[in-house]
Amino acid sequence: MSTLHTVNKSPFQNQTLISCLGHTKAGDSVLLIEDGVYGAMSGNAMSEVVASMGANVKLFVLGPDVAARGIDAARVAEGFTQVDYEGFVDMAASCDRVQNWL
Amino acid sequence: MSKVKKFLYVNRKAPYGTIYAQEALEVVLIGAAFDQDVSLAFLDDGVFQLTKGQDTKEAGLKNFSPTFRALGDYEVTKLYVEQESLDERGLTLDDLQDIQYEDEDDDYAEKPSIIVVSRAGMADVMADQDVVLSF
Amino acid sequence: MAYDVNGTTVEHDEEGYITNLSEWTKELADVISKAEDIDMGEEHWAVVNFLRDYYEEYQIAPAVRVLIKSIKKSMGPEVGNNKYMYELFPYGPAKQACKIAGLPKPTGCV
User: Fold this and answer.
1) Among A1, A23, A97, whose Cβ lies nearest the Cβ of B123?
2) Closest C-alpha among B30, B75, B70, B21 to residue C56
3) Distance (Å) from the C-alpha of residue B48 to the closest C-alpha of chain A?
């Protein structure tokens, strides 16, 4: 039993990513998409809190949205796995439920 | 008949700044016709939706807060409210509307619809659903 | 599009629901009911008054099954049942009675 959570807002814009990470269960997956991908960057004011709150979940980031924003692969924090659209679909199909945090 | 599914509508936005809250309530009322097991969750700024004393006259907006008290008629009787979200905003249960439903199986006794849960409890509620819809 | 109530016009939308809810009067209800081909009796009025009270309290027009359940509770099962309510308001108790009561179309009705 696991949930795929998606977050599409930058953690610098609002608290959605923090709220999401505060409501996950161990073993859930969190996928950052659209402006949410800024939450996957290393070396910024949010990096540490994302890493510590996300310690019990699997962290993913949508590659096309990372590339679209010119974020170098080297700037994606350790602990995040990049997936493509196909990977996104597979994740959605294999979990028990999807919760899209708006 | 198909299996009854558990639906959770997650409310995380304050009532009037965006259309999310009002739209969510409308979706809940429409969805209630489908005889599923429906619950609502209120967390983050979503807890502001349930405060009492909302008066939108001068703001020229429709006050939809009384509609939460009609949810019992639609057999929506579980409104989970997150304690930490209340605390962070300096709110207590007393600041919220008294929302009740009539229990048909218990001689129409009036029972509270609001269930206050911890953040961890809210995570459990979310993980227990078939479908989660966020607003 | 408008109803004419003794020379006063009350705007309505293409389906006949009035645009400004505060313009409702009992005289207007009579005009709308004639347009709907309904001869308003005591029980019709009871339903219309119930709907207006419900809207005043909850700010929504109830769905038809909520309406019937509530009428059953307040007026008994002889009135509060599907068949009888559709006899009173052949085009749908919620839809048609809401129109006469000067309320918006019930949420979820298409």
Assistant:
1) A23
2) B70
3) 16
B23 touches chain A (CB under 8 A): no
Q: pLDDT for B33-90, tens place per residue?
A: 888 999 999 999 999 999 999 999 999 999 999 999 999 999 999 999 999 999 999 9
**What are A77's two structure tokens?**
């924090």
Above 60 in pLDDT, residue C109?
A: no
What residue in C sits closest to B62 (Cα-Cα)? C59
Interface check B66 vs C, CB under 8 A: yes
Q: What is the CATH number of domain A3-101?
A: 3.40.1260.10
Contact assignment for B32 to C63 by CB distance below 8 Å: yes
As a whole-number percent, the residues of chain A with pLDDT over 90 amount to 99
Domain limits at B104? 6-134
Please indicate, yes or no, if residue B29 is contained in any of the structural domains: yes
pLDDT tens per residue across span C20-43: 999 999 999 999 999 999 999 999
Q: For residue B129, give the chain A residue with the closest CA.
A: A97
Q: Considering only CB atoms, which chain B residues are within 8 Å of C51?
A: none
DSSP result, chain A: --EEEEE-S-TTT-SHHHHHHTT--TT-EEEE-GGGGGGGBSSSTTHHHHHHHTTTSEEEEEHHHHHHTT--GGGBPTTEEEE-HHHHHHHHHHSSEEEEE-
Q: Predicted ipTM?
A: 0.90
B135 touches chain A (CB under 8 A): yes
Digit-coded pLDDT (tens) for A64-78: 999 999 999 999 999
Domain annotation covers residue B102: yes
Residue C70 has pLDDT above 90, yes or no: no
